[in-house]
Amino acid sequence: MSISKKSIILLFFVLLKFALQYFAINPVYELQRDEFLHLDLGKHLAWGYTSVPPVTSWISYVILILGNSVFWVKFFPALFGALTIVVVWKTIEELNGKMFALIMGAVSVTYSALLRINTLYQPNSLEYLMWTLLFFIVIKFINSENNKWLWLAAVTLAIGFLNKYNITFLMLGLLPALAISTHRKIFLNKHFYFSLFFGLLLVSPNLIWQYQNGFPVFHHLKTLAETQLVNVDRFGFLKAQLLFFAGSLFVIIFAFISFFRYPPFRQFRFFFWSTLFTLAIFTWFKAKSYYAIGLYPVLLAFGSVYLEKLLSRDWLKYLKPIAVLFPVLVMIPMFRIMMPVLSPSEIIQKKEIFQKIGLLRWEDGKEHQIPQDFADMLGWKELAGIVDETFESLENGENTIIHCDNYGQAGAINFYSKQKYTQAVSMNADYINWYPLDEMEIENVILVKSIYDKDKNRERERAFFDSVDLVGEISNPFAREKGTKVYLLKSAKISVNDILREEIRKNKNNY
């Protein structure tokens, strides 16, 4: 088959990927909590943040230039998902796979948990692309022994590191796997160390930023471990690995077999050990299950090529259409569970299904009505509307700030609010660095407090302001922020700027 026909088929999968990502979200849902924070990073470009490395802010800056619409917010994770398919396609070609293997690999990647991942504007989509690209580059280096691939690997690692630090765990699994393989001679190659040093230079601005700011990444990891990972079950982590590529799990199994049974792939057996080592590290640290998703696309490439070899026999070739259709058929019933296509009321009607596979268990370890990810996509427009109405009630909003409990509230208000005076801020995440204390003397505060706040009567604030009024609260029964209240604190009696400076100092000292 000619290259042009292969290109047309690849283009079909790329376009299919974009179509699925854009139309797999029920209009009832809004952006997800984390997306708001990531978008606001683009307004405050820096070499580092407490929440993520800087690459996300660069992409967010581009989104801002393009108009900051939902279309562009969804475009980039869809693009990274489509490019992941392209890299798997090219990996299969490098492994001498033919048309069946190419289609098998593309279908396996398309109809997987990446469908959900690629709907969200988070670092994960680019992360999995970088992992897959790095594996492709390693294969190219082994096949060619051309040192240029080591330098490209260093650049890929640097971009991956500046996008999400999790790629460090990949290297902790990959390097020992190479060390026990026949390719250990790579550690005697001077270009290996020169390229690593080059990669270190590329990420050094972020490392310097971390040093200058007291390595907030460690505070972030500590908070993550105490509030979220503490509820992670190690067995649950391993069980979840079987679900991410459920329809193409057989392809991954064939990949593992191929490293031991298929002579051309024995030289790549270190991929088997790398997968085991990385999974072991994640399991030990009680990582979130989706952290390991980037391990699997390259395995789908190996498995697809080996499966093509097995099914090349005349009496087995009729199984090829079944193999290609299987991931699609498995994904069809999972699609309505994994993707936000059902409304909250429809989810409740099918509660048993969601409950059975653990989707109703949130990070707090408790069962809820709808999945946490979906609950994090509700109530935000309502909150921003309350804030806008409050601003409209003020004669002069220029000396008013919006002070929120968490980054989700602040980011959602900044994205959906139509008021023109100020950006919402919070002592949570990176917003702690963005208070406009040197730009205005604060007279009024719009205070956003979550349901976990115990001071319902706002006794503390009443001592500092002439009036404290409850002006509204999120009423959406399915929103994770249901019950979040908005207060208007008017006419400060003392310097609010000084109080906030002290609060910022205390919070930063806790880092």
Give a short summary of the structure.
By secondary structure, the protein is mainly α.
What does the model show?
The chain has 511 residues and is mainly α. It has 3 domains: 3-338, no CATH class; 344-375, no CATH class; 380-509, 3-Layer(aba) Sandwich (Rossmann fold). Helix content is 58%, strand content 6%. The protein is built from 23 helices and 5 strands. The protein has helices at residues 3-23, 33-41, 55-65, 70-94, 99-110, 114-117, 124-144, 148-163, 167-179, 190-212, 216-227, 234-244, 249-261, 270-284, 296-310, 320-338, 344-349, 351-356, 372-375, 380-392, 407-416, 459-462, 496-509, and strands spanning 400-404, 425-426, 444-449, 465-473, 485-492. It has a 5-stranded mixed sheet with strand order 2-1-3-5-4, with helices on one face. The model has no long low-confidence stretch (mean pLDDT 91).
